[in-house]
Amino acid sequence: KDIYVPGPDVGTKDADMKLVAIENGLDSAVSKPADMGGNRIDELGGAAGGVVIALQTLLKILPRLRVLPQFANLEIPEENDLTVIIQGFGAVGAHASRIIKERISEAKVIGISDLEGYLYNENGLPVEDLFGLWQKLGLVTNTFFKDKIAPEGFKHPTKFSTNANNLLLENAFCMVPAAPIFNYLGVRSSDKASMLVDRMGKWSVIIEGANTYSPDPNRKASRTRMEQIVYGEKGVMIANDYLVNSGGVIFAAQEHIIKTPENLQIPDNMLGNREEVEKWLKDHEYDFAELSKQRLIAGEEYRENVIHHNMIELVDLLAAHPDMLPCTAAQRVSIQRLSAKESQRTAKDIMVSIPTIDINNSIQNAAKLMIDKNSGIVAVLSEDILVGVATDWDITAAVASNSCDVKLDKIMTKDVITTSPDYTMLDIVRELEQYQISAMPVVKDGKVLGKVSSDLITQRYVLSLLQDHRI
Q1: Where are the beta strands (DSSP E) in 101-208?
Q2: Angle at the Cα of 270 (from 269 to 273), degrees rounded to 5?
Q3: What proportions of the chain, in percent to the nearest 5, are helix, strand and coil?
Q4: At what angle do helices 247-257 and 285-320 cross, to 10 degrees?
Q5: Confidence of residue 469 (pLDDT cuts 50, 70, 90)
């Protein structure tokens, strides 16, 4: 039976996961506090640590990109000249600033932003003070302005603005998008991005701490346009989100990889009784502390190895393929890192439903079905047997050529590339790559069973694989 196991995300924290566990049992939530043997993503900055590991790795390997014309003049600073700005001083951004000071002690965090504005000081911000303020208040920029900058006025070396997006006008070696914003950079004003690429500051690398991936075709197109200019023309390396910020997932996974012993499971008769559970946890304090320590060590080791190798493979792919964009390379890295276990999953294990329509239907009906089912492809049937597929591109082409009044058989693809339900994940990936398609029906004896797609594999399976130390 599949059970949804929550972990902290925007608006929740480790303490909230403790409440879930008190009500439902220790294995019903991840990222619990240490007194439950948890790995505390929120408290320890699981995802933020990945950002810093990525930065440290890139500092060593970025010179490999000098074979590309846009990176021919790339300069790697010494540690004491390394500057970072962080968009979004929250759970990821605040911890990233703290871990940068711990792991790259002479580096300077020179700019941060939150919902109330941004702070910038080319000589470095007081990270320890700001982190403490964040732990206490959540938002820091306006409070720092009132307490530190306003009393001194223009004499204070730190700049403050109530326009948080304008942080992205400032220069730094590294920019870390750590706010829950998909399009931190945009090419067109219609992208509604934090900043347009023609106004962005001068950076050498972007390390995405926030989740920026989206399967939505319009957003993917917007992302491609952005990378073509920022990476392809301006020569700014982009380390994509799911290759960087998977530390939180890796940390959380240890709470299932390293099992909770039976003697440390909350007795069923105590579940929901917070006072009794707290007493029981206190009685087992030492054992839970040891379990938490074991999981933390494992999580840190896995995170270090996985993200370090993610960056190496990403840079090597980009250096070897001059026309490839980071978003494409990141997906390829993910696909290539499928573990032996996952690669044996078959199409019938991973497929999702595909809308079907009779061949005698109109283009309009097919378009409506695509919208209703949120699918860019429909299977066209004749007497319940697959005879073709119609895609959103087929319909767009038909509209462009004034062929809206024809039946589906006139615009559909009749030579359909299909997969057997017994094809493994790697077989599916090879088919998608060989035929340069993004989706295909799963068919047995002419009957349509479902569909598989590159987006499905990336969203549902690749991200979870990053927690496996074998990759």
Answers
A1: 108-114, 117-120, 159-161, 174-177, 185-186, 195-196, 205-207
A2: 135
A3: 50, 15, 35
A4: 140
A5: very low
Predicted TM-score (pTM) of this structure: 0.72
Sheet containing 205-207: order of strands: 159-161, 117-120, 108-114, 83-87, 174-177, 205-207, 237-239
> Is CATH 3.40.50.720 the right assignment for the domain spanning 80-245+326-336?
yes
Q: What does the domain layout of the chain look like in residue ranges?
A: 80-245+326-336, 347-465
Give the separation between CA 52 and CA 54, rounded to whole angstroms: 5
C-beta separation of 144 from 160 below 8 A: yes
Please state, in angstroms and rounded to a whole number, the distance separating the CA atoms of residues 121 and 261. 50
92's tokens: 């990821």
Here the tokens at position 68 are 């590309």
434-471 in b/e form (b: 16+ CB < 10 A) is eeebebbbbbeeeebbbbbbbbbbbeebbbebbbbeeb
Helices (H) and strands (E) in the chain, counts: 19, 14
**pLDDT score recorded for residue 2:** 56
Q: Which residue has the tokens 């990889």?
A: 257
Q: How would DSSP label each residue in 398-426?
A: HHHTT-TTSBGGGTSBSS---B-TT-BHH
- The phi and psi torsions of 113 (rounded to 5 degrees) equal -140, 155
Rounded Cα distance between 200 and 169, Å, is: 5
Radius of gyration for the alpha carbons in the chain, expressed in angstroms and rounded? 25
Distance of CA 245 to the CA centre of its chain: 6
Q: For residue 421, report the phi and psi dihedrals to the nearest 5 degrees.
A: -65, -15
Residue in this structure with the two tokens 């900055």, named with its chain if needed: 45
Class of domain 347-465: alpha beta
134 with 126: CB under 8 angstroms? no
CA distance linking residue 273 with residue 344, whole number of Å: 43
Query: Which H helix or E strand runs over 390?
Result: strand 385-391
Residues in the chain: 471
User: Residue range 328-338: average pLDDT?
Assistant: 80
Give residue-wise pLDDT tens across range 30-63. 889 899 998 887 788 888 999 999 999 999 999 9
d(Cα 125, Cα 134) in Å, to the nearest integer?
14
- Report d(CA 447, CA 433) in Å as an integer: 24
